[in-house]
Write a structure and sequence with these properties.
This protein is of the alpha+beta class. Helices cover about 20% and strands about 30% of the residues. It has two domains: about 210 residues, FAD/NAD(P)-binding domain, CATH 3.50.50; about 130 residues, D-Amino Acid Oxidase, Chain A, domain 2 (2-Layer Sandwich), CATH 3.30.9.10. It is built from six helices and 20 strands. Strand 19 and strand 20 form a beta hairpin. Helix 1 runs parallel beside helix 4 and helix 3 packs across helix 6. The radius of gyration is 20 Å and the shape is globular. The two termini are about 30 Å apart. The model has no long low-confidence stretch (mean pLDDT about 95). It binds flavin-adenine dinucleotide. The site of flavin-adenine dinucleotide (FAD) has 42 residues, from helix 1, strand 2, helix 2, strand 13 and strand 18.
Amino acid sequence: MRVIICGAGVVGACSAFELAKRGVETVVVERAAVACAASSGSGGFLARDWCDGTPLEALARRSYVRHAELVDELADEPADEPGENWGYRPVETLSVAAAEGAGRSASDAPDRPAWLDESCVVQGRLGTERDTAQVDPGAFTRAMMAAAQARGARLMIGRVEAVAPGRTPAVIVDGTHMTADAVVLALGPWSAIARTWLPIPAVFGLKGQSITFRAPQITTTHNLFVDYRFADGSTAQPEIIPRPDGTLYVCGLSHQTPVPLDPWAITPDADRLERLRRMALHVIPSLRDAEVLVERACFRPVTADGLPLIGPHADHERILLATGHSVWGILNAPATGEALAELLTTGETKSVPLAPFAPSRRTGTGR
Ligand SMILES: Cc1cc2nc3c(=O)[nH]c(=O)nc-3n(C[C@H](O)[C@H](O)[C@H](O)COP(=O)(O)OP(=O)(O)OC[C@H]3O[C@@H](n4cnc5c(N)ncnc54)[C@H](O)[C@@H]3O)c2cc1C
């Protein structure tokens, strides 16, 4: 069997790995570079049970387990950069409230990180090292793609221009027709372009900003979910993620706006970036002297009902969708790839049911 995967973000890379592992001839077509978009610009925060009670529960729990398993499964394999690993580690996770201009807080939570500004209030513990973890998402995605290639998958840099359904679907890449037994569309927020070839539910892009600082002084694992109030009364919910490589990632201030066709054309918004920087420097005063390593923006793929689209197209079973993972794409990519690979090789999914994510469902718009 030959499968063409369109898009080498985390969902495409994990799908390629699981297919190649099962001996399927796999080609990944990527327009720009592996993990060039949200799959490297995101937080990489993972939670075992934050999706409990929702249709995502089984997918998230299975993915959380797979993230830990993959560390051992690929332990002896070099990633694409010698020495690169993807920084998987269990973390403590706190909810924090902060307000611009606020004075010293009376909060003295026992596990309060010493690097937090004294005006911040620790509202509670959201997770512990037993049930929350993190990865460096870009390194993880590249490692999954490298592991797929080590198992025979082929990566092709080229722009998917169209997909033609049929018994042997075709993908047109830079004017060249490539045929396959099945095609997986893992185009993230660019899934919208597929609507010019096929009727699929709408997928939107939500743009988020992020800043990565060099911060070796942050030596605890605390990931922070912050309720922030600016002096003008506006609010924001930034996420603060220290990484084991001595960097600290901060993201937030998402909004819906058109996705540029070229992934390299995405640029951060100066005003939102400035507000994000202000929040970060207030919450962690030692960042005032820290070097800024990266300032960027990226889009998460969102559907109208908030659930991903995973599985065969409603009318063309040889074309499968794997997109719309929203805020949990890094978490949920491993079980997404595993389930798709099971479906394509055995005709059924054993690890997690895909029914809640069927592309044939009514998502509320676009069908
Ligand atoms: C600020 C921010 C923080 C986040 N934090 C977290 C987090 O902490 N935890 C978590 O689990 N998730 C998080 N997410 C969500 C997560 O990043 C996404 O859900 C995930 O990266 C989506 O992966 P993807 O593979 O579907 O899409 P993408 O990573 O967008 O990949 C799609 C790929 O398709 C390629 N492509 C586009 N057009 C074409 C074409 N015509 N031909 C070929 N290839 C094409 C693109 O170049 C790209 O590489 C966050 C997202 C954002 C924006």
